[in-house]
């Protein structure tokens, strides 16, 4: 878990939004909604989970390897860019 309080707050907000998306998906499935909107909701939820993964990984990288502005910043910045591109 991220050590920075701002990172933690941002990540928990993402988790709560994902929870809301999952609950909406469950309601749509229970009500027998058409497949297209359900598939769209699943894709949106998957995208949100990827965003959460990127956020947690970025916080971990900053915590373990230092901020991009600090010593070794170029490598940290390169790694953060790689994580962002991979999880898009």
Give the helix/strand layout.
Elements: H1 5-31, H2 35-65, H3 73-86
Helix pairs in contact: 1-2, 2-3
Account of the 3D structure:
- The chain is mainly α.
- Helices cover 82% and strands 0% of the residues.
- The protein is built from three helices and no strands.
- The chain has helices spanning 5-31, 35-65, 73-86.
- Helix 1 (5-31) packs antiparallel against helix 2 and helix 2 (35-65) packs antiparallel against helix 3 (73-86).
- The longest helix is centred in the middle third of the chain and has 31 residues, at 35-65.
- The chain is elongated.
- The mean pLDDT is 88.
Briefly say what this structure is.
With 88 residues, the chain is mainly α. It contains three helices and no strands. The chain has helices spanning 5-31, 35-65, 73-86.
The counted number of beta strands is 0
Distance between the termini: 21 Å
Shape: elongated
The number of helical runs is 3
- Give the SSE order as H and E letters: HHH
Poorly predicted runs: none
Characteristic key phrases:
elongated, mainly alpha, 88 residues
């Amino acid at each position: 878990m991220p050590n920075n309080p701002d990172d933690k707050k941002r990540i928990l907000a993402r988790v709560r939004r994902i929870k809301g998306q999952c609950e909406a998906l469950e309601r749509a499935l229970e009500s027998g909604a058409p497949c297209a909107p359900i598939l769209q909701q699943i894709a949106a939820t998957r995208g949100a989970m990827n965003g959460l993964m990127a956020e947690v990984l970025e916080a971990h990288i900053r915590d373990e390897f230092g901020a991009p502005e600090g010593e070794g910043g170029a490598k940290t910045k390169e790694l953060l860019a790689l994580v962002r591109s991979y999880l898009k």
